[in-house]
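Protein in question filed below.

…
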Amino acid sequence: MEKHVYHGSEFSISEPIFGYGKPNNDYGVGFYCTEDEPLSKEWAVAPDHDGYSNHYRLEMEGLSLLDLTKPPFGVLNWLAILLDNRIFDLENEDEEEARDYLLAHFLPKGYRDYDIIIGYRADDSYFAFAKDFLSGALTYRRLAKAMELGNLGTQIVLISKKAFDALTFVSSTKVKRSECLKRKMDRDLEARREYRKERSNPRIKGDINVFDIIDGGFTHGDPRL
């Protein structure tokens, strides 16, 4: 099966380089794409530069896939991988305990051995939601719901050399920040607005926070989640 994927960047990239990139990205070193072309254009721009939406064909046959948006995986698995790669400014021992527990019990084993990972993109909004969950301020079900706010999108991350070899460059489209930056910022603001509204709603009966998960000994695949 073939997918059409797009990579938003400051540069036109006809030949992505395996092993190149920042180790502190959401899923570690990899090539980060989306199936949503308009979203890739938003990811390509910043206040100080225009960018490019790079279009590729990706042959999926024979590639191993870890999809964090579908069972048996879920938002806690996504968060554990995020904790394994991104730098969190933890403020106290409770948050450190929450981090260590999630890494020990929800980090998918061998996730770096997959060819491709599909999961949420931890931009500023999603990263803030994750931080609130670690502090206990955001409950489990509200964290899961927050991942849907603002339509901030999921990403397809090429991890292995095999996945890079399955990628074929199609074209590169110039993107002007004057056309896409406002839409990008509005999307993030909408997610934050919806999040504040959601947090102000009455407590959901039976909902739990990260410390309930720790005290209850919850693990990956737990039927209580």
